[in-house]
Amino acid sequence: MAELTEQQKHLQSVLEQQQTLVSEINTLESQARSKREMAVKLQGIVEYLGGIGVELPKEEEATAAPEAPAPTANTEVVQPAPVPTAPSTGTAGLAS
Fold first, then answer.
1. Helix/strand/coil (H, E, C) string of 28-69?
2. Which of 28, 53, 66, 74 gets the highest tally of CB atoms within 10 A of its CB?
3. 49, 56 Cβ separation under 8 angstroms
4. Over the stretch 28-63, which tens digit does the pLDDT of each residue have?
């Protein structure tokens, strides 16, 4: 087989990238379809449970028992030490 030119190598690379992307798209579409089916099933379960009277506690019932406050961590803010500066000598005493 003859040596491929630079343009032919580029075309080959582009075609391989395209095939990879098409494969990834097909995989993602399959995953999306599967997740959509699961969401529909879960919605059916929610509707069934709601139909037989299963409910979650109301907000005021859930918050009626206050939780203990979360412990706070002791934190210390450390300030960087000031950087000493050299005294300026000025130019007032210099002769030209």
1. HHHHHHHHHHHHHHHHHHHHHHHHCCCCCCCHHHHCCCCCCC
2. 28
3. no
4. 999 999 999 999 999 999 999 999 999 999 887 656
